[in-house]
Amino acid sequence: MQRIHAREYFEGEFELPGDKSITHRAIMLNGGSEGEAVITNALMGEDCVSTCRCMRALGAEIDIDGTTLRVKGTPRFRRGRELNCGNSGTTIRLLTGFVAGKEIDAMLYGDDSLSGRPMKRVAEPLAMLGADVKTMDGHAPVYVSPKKLCGADVTIPVASAQVKSALLLAAISAEGETSVTEPNKSRDHTERMLAAMGADVQVNGNRVTVKKSTLKSLDVRVPADISSAAYFMALGALKGKTLCKNVGVNPTRTGILKAFDLLGVKYRLLNERVSGGELTADILVEKTPMKGIELTGEDVPSMIDELPLVALLCAFADGESRISGAKELRVKESDRIKTTAELIRNIGGDCMETEDGFIIRGKNKLRGGDIDSYLDHRIAMTGAVGLIASEFGGNIYRPECCAISFPDFFEKLGIRLY
Ligand code: S3P
In which order are the strands placed within the sheet that holds 207-211? Predict the structure, then answer.
């Protein structure tokens, strides 16, 4: 349990850890390529460590020195491995597709939270390429058997970068051409990195087409993760002024800035530049009075991991906010509709769950109180922001799970966990 004190004012300049999605992909794709690559500013949170563990088991050599990784890849994976994906949905879903494409057998599993998350969404579309992927009643453990894959035209029902990427990673080894179409555009790091590694990739709106390709290893400099920066951006908006440096602002990830626009938050992007094929910028945010907003399904993919935090900001805004079309939150590391609504109520806010989102009545002041992380890293960090911005602070139970995506989150806040 950790006490979090309320603060009158919050100000600072922050270097945030590397992007989780890009780090996963840089390790996996280089791990499956001929040659050697260096990844710098990699996130070494627990989820990406899970990806390293699995790629090593499949035959890649990975040398870790702080946030610099040297990866010697292998286009032929070892057979018959048991791959422990820990808590990481990205690891298990992307690797299921990657392994299926290699025509080998493997078993993929994870912790209790991961074992409760849907895997049919990956197994079923992969079967359209000819893959043999069996789940336990739609969940991990997942068993992949060797099968030759053939390109297909696949439409997926939910916008999910994990499902799309699983298909694309299988597709680069499948005969012919594969297209994946999703209802809204999810993050596009996989298609960008595949193209940079020499794969034949075409993007047309929400449809990505890939031909059978061989990957060449690629050095990657990972930008800071906007999903991690978001907590410090929110503290700037609520309590003072923050500057987050070198943040990835790929347009498929910047929904939080759209939410800021609607809330009326004052922010500026400085030093916009392209680094390693990804747009980056420094983000300056200043305290602003906020007003209630409405978000719908098409807003969701670009802020999927920030929605608990956006809901928290709404709890501090003037008037009512409605967030809908966010049913996906129910199948994240926790049921984030339930855990976010409980978190907001426990610190004195007014948040009602709906089937696919929230109705939030904003208050200028929230008193604070005791909260649980539910072992979900994003809930732990959203909770810490809520308590710092509250009147009296409170306790947070099981905060250590922030190490999944942001190992030194509390240190950056000047809080030493004990
Ligand atoms: C991720 C995609 C998102 C996101 C997750 C990371 C990725 O999941 O929530 O934290 O790296 O592809 P979905 O694509 O399933 O929404």
Answer: 153-155, 177-181, 207-211, 201-204
